[in-house]
């Protein structure tokens, strides 16, 4: 089947138990823009918050489902165990290190073990995050920081970087990445007490890499607040997504089939170690129901949920985002 290469990361979706503190951390501490305040379309009693660049360009979205009763995350294998966020240059990491120290954000030291300058840190729930410098990066473009962000543009986060997958059986996930999704094995580096293999797709670079770590000695991760739910990869169009639906069926890989998400179109499946992958289209984007100037300020619902607005809003704790 004539499939175009995936273009890189589309979004990463994680879990929070506290939407208010989550909003404050990702907008005021990290300087991202809340481009959409909506609900989990599979459970409309749950907020789904999208943080990104100025307009939620594909490849810039870090999203959260609010599950107030989410328990502690017990870290382990078969998980998305770190999400990277792109910053413009090596000097940006020193800016962020000083900012984290001032604000009391837990962080490690700046390192180069991945082959790029990086700074690992966690949010208030232990979400595992990494700032990665794009100073020497060549590959897929990032987005455009919001001009009303509290972070100076020369240091602002403007996209998703490599996503780290920790698995118990590397070969199984590797075959899905290369044989099914068309990733190329690029290089290896030593980190996390083992060897990490880098896979890239499309134009490559920080916005199009998956880092794969095998840790058969670890128990399976038990997710909770501060864990990642799934990672999504970019597909150019709905026409291309339909080809992927047919291709996975042909390969006898169970999937959700086509799923309408309004802001994009999707397809979900689990790779053999149990990590949830999504393929998502670049469009239509987030300005179909809100103007650019007011993205994320009100509760946005896809048209097919609009007749349920009153009952949906009644189940949600108000969240001020203006």
From TrEMBL:
Residues 8-134, 159-282 form the VOC domain. The keyword Oxidoreductase applies. Keywords: Dioxygenase, Oxidoreductase. GO terms for molecular function: dioxygenase activity. The keyword Transmembrane does not apply. Pfam families: Glyoxalase. InterPro entries: Extradiol_RC_dioxygenase (IPR052537), Glyas_Bleomycin-R_OHBP_Dase (IPR029068), Glyas_Fos-R_dOase_dom (IPR004360), VOC_core (IPR037523). It comes from the Bacteria. PANTHER family: RING-CLEAVING DIOXYGENASE MHQA-RELATED (PTHR36110:SF4), RING-CLEAVING DIOXYGENASE MHQE-RELATED (PTHR36110). This is Ring-cleaving dioxygenase. It comes from Bacillus mesophilus.
